[in-house]
Specification:
Blueprint lengths: L20 H22 L9 H51 L3 E9 L8 H5 L7 E3 L6 E3 L14 H23 L1 H5 L7 E8 L7 H11 L6 E2 L9 H8 L9 E8 L15 E9 H6 L6 E3 L3 E3 L4 H12 L9 E4 L3 H13 L13 E3 H4 L7 H16 L3 E7 L2 E9 L4 H5 L1
Parallel strand pairs: 4-5, 4-6, 10-11, 10-12
Antiparallel strand pairs: 1-7, 1-8, 2-3, 6-7, 8-13, 9-13, 12-13
Helix pairs in contact: 1-2, 4-6, 9-10
């Protein structure tokens, strides 16, 4: 569950006014004069005046009583200050502990991001501006759509559109699963046998009528990968599932590695793909940082807890995302964002400027990366696609990346940062 900032104790910034030294000095003098006068007026006429008792009564007693009277407000003020400082110290400690708890990351053990049939990662080309979403004809040449899809065989006139899309997806889905799992093979098999591995499989292939889990299991066995179980969560996991995972108490529900596999495919001939859409596939092998350290697993990057908020409160959301990511605004030069409309995009960039994050401009690599405009809307994989791109680029660029995803009425902001190693660590 996300931290409720309003539930944290608030510091007391306003200190009580200090008693006026001038005023209480005058009160002191007045008390001394009044006390001495009273003693002189009431002193018995028959009693001797040149005695120690007389001078004690005339001087010592009035001065002592005046001092006590004057010191009381200063003592009360000092007591209030001590109470306020003690409260603020406890508040700071509690807030620091809360932020330390929220700052715990998820370790990325391996990741793959694909949106093209070309070999290797294309994310660096996206950051460089070499890849942008552009109109292209569907295989049957019946429409021109600004969308992106994986390899499509030539459409032969007379072919049943449903059969074409079915056969294409039957080839693409197992193929892309094989490519991703093969690339992650070493990382998957490095997960110790006594650490459970769960696979969260998210696939949207509208014409694919076979058992998707069966195909996945077949590919898995062909690559001779270690044992796993499917995650049977009813809902499609979004970025907020990281929040829930981190807050789950230690035990079987938390102490496991997760391989998130998300694939979005579209029909191309039965109906044209949605404008602005993209076929994409991502695979992220993750485990909580403390579990990675316990099993001495090598992390490539860290995924910090997402902070959710409305578009109107993006400045506060961004500030907390930076704090939980353990980075300064000057450390972040790129933001990967998706799902924002024009108003949301302007609000996000305004919050970035207000936080004094200097995005890269006018260089080979742009700092403002609108994933929807450059690659396309990844559909069912969209929640994770921008994060996967940021994690891929963070490892090559060597600096933290800001990730922003808007869905429904809320936005989620988070930090993805590479694990930088010294030459000694690398050689080991």
């Amino acid at each position: 569950m996300a931290l409720d900032i309003d539930s944290l104790p608030r510091r007391i910034e306003a200190e009580p006014l200090r008693p006026s030294l001038l005023v209480w000095s005058l009160v002191f003098v007045a008390c001394v004069v009044a006390g001495s006068t009273i003693v002189l007026v009431t002193w018995p006429k028959h009693a001797p005046a040149a005695t120690p008792v007389f001078w004690v009564a005339v001087v010592i007693v009035p001065v002592t009583l005046a001092a006590i009277t004057v010191l009381l407000p200063f003592r009360a003020h000092a007591g209030k200050l001590r109470a306020i400082r003690s409260w603020n110290s406890r508040c700071d400690h509690q807030i620091a502990r809360a932020h330390e708890w929220e700052s715990r990351p998820v370790a990325l053990l391996g990741g793959v991001c694909r949106f093209s049939s070309e070999k290797g990662s294309q994310v660096a080309k996206v950051a460089a501006g070499d890849i942008k979403l552009a109109p292209q004809q569907t295989p049957d040449r019946a429409a021109t759509v600004a969308a992106r899809w994986f390899r499509a065989p030539e459409f032969v006139v007379g072919t049943d559109p449903r059969e074409y899309d079915l056969e294409r997806q039957r080839v693409i889905l197992p193929g892309v699963l094989f490519v991703m799992l093969d690339e992650l093979r070493e990382h998957i098999n490095a997960v110790p046998a006594d650490l459970p591995l769960r696979v969260a499989l998210i696939v949207d292939a509208p014409s694919f009528d076979d058992g998707i889990r069966d195909h996945f299991t077949t590919v898995w066995k062909n690559l001779a990968l270690r044992a796993f179980t499917f995650d049977d969560a009813a809902a499609v996991p979004g970025l907020t599932s990281l929040d829930s995972w981190l807050d789950t108490p230690a035990g079987t529900e938390r102490d496991h590695a997760t391989l998130l596999v998300a694939v979005q495919l579209h029909d191309l001939v039965v109906q044209s793909p949605p404008p602005g859409s993209a076929e994409a596939a991502i695979a992220l092998l993750m485990v909580p940082q403390d579990i990675a350290e316990r099993y001495r697993l090598t992390a490539l990057a860290q995924v910090h807890r997402p902070r959710q908020g409305t578009v109107a409160a993006l400045s506060v959301t961004l500030s907390l995302a930076l704090k939980w990511g353990g980075v300064r605004p000057a450390d972040v030069h790129h933001v990967w964002y998706a799902g924002f409309d024009k108003v949301g995009q302007e609000a996000l960039l305004a919050a970035i400027r207000a936080e004094k994050i200097a995005l890269v401009e006018g260089q080979q690599v742009s700092g403002e990366l609108n994933v929807d405009r450059l690659v396309g809307d990844a559909g069912i994989a969209a929640d994770w696609f921008a994060l996967a791109c940021a994690l891929d680029f963070a490892q090559s660029f060597g600096a933290p990346q800001m990730v922003a995803r808007h869905s429904g009425t809320t936005s989620a902001l988070m930090i993805a940062r590479p694990v930088l190693r010294t030459p000694v660590q690398t050689s080991l």
